[in-house]
Design goal:
4-stranded mixed sheet, 8 helices, binds glutathione
């Protein structure tokens, strides 16, 4: 029994793991969610029904960061997404947490607000999410001053897997202003990375489903 990934191409967290799999050309069975059978299997394996979920030889692995750590441990490839040196690994994990907590989370909050009934919207929470994104961009711009990749500087890592989809969609809901040239350049660099470009291309057919409306770019 090999690897199976329950995922949807348009989901930002699913892209985070897909990028890791594509980086190393790791073979896996794509169990696409949105189809009744795959949805039922996911609910059975993970009652919280968050995606993606990895199944490795019958063993269920959840949470994107843990999934990517699991892949590095049990299915390593030529691209090491968590550095061997524990200090360098810590820097990568720190940036991974930054992107999930302070870019992905506020971006999701803004997007999810569009799915609420009109009388249950949360303008205060949405404002807060916009402010958090602005502060996150500012901090990241300084952090990227002398770095090509966000986690370990010279090498693409877990942190960049988290950065790519979070900055991709965050820029759609809270544009990265020219005042943050390093973040804009980093997002563009990420989009050129073949693993990221592939994930973005696979998600193209679903853009019309982006709740706030997708911009005509990228
Ligand atoms: N912390 C989780 C977050 C996963 C997550 O939020 N996935 C979203 C898709 S991008 C999801 O499943 N949303 C469906 C829902 O909220 O019901 C991880 O890293 O795997």
């Amino acid at each position: 029994m090999g690897l199976a990934l329950y995922a949807h191409p348009f989901s930002s967290y699913c892209q985070k793991v897909l990028i890791a799999l594509y980086e190393n050309g790791t073979p896996f069975e794509y169990r696409q969610l949105g189809e009744a059978k795959a949805d039922a299997e996911l609910a059975e394996r993970w009652p919280l029904k968050r995606m993606p979920v990895l199944v490795d030889g019958g063993h269920t692995v959840v949470e994107t960061t843990v999934i990517i750590e699991h892949l590095g441990l049990h299915h390593p490839g030529p691209v090491r997404l968590i550095p061997e040196d524990p200090r360098a690994a810590l820097a990568v994990r720190m940036l991974d947490r930054f992107f999930d907590g302070y870019v992905m989370t506020p971006m999701q909050r803004i997007v999810a607000d569009h799915l609420r009934p009109a009388d249950r919207r949360d303008p205060f929470g949405v404002d807060e999410a916009h402010r958090l994104l602005e502060t996150a961009y500012r901090w990241l711009d300084g952090h990227l001053e002398a770095r090509t990749w966000s986690g370990s500087g010279a090498h693409f890592s877990l942190a960049d897997c988290a950065a790519a989809p979070s900055l991709f969609y965050a820029d759609w809901v809270h544009p990265i202003e020219p005042a943050f040239p390093n973040v804009r350049a980093y997002r563009a660099r990420l989009l050129k990375r073949p693993s990221v470009a592939r994930a973005v291309d696979e998600a193209r057919p679903y853009r019309a489903n982006f709740p706030p409306g997708a911009p005509d770019r990228d």
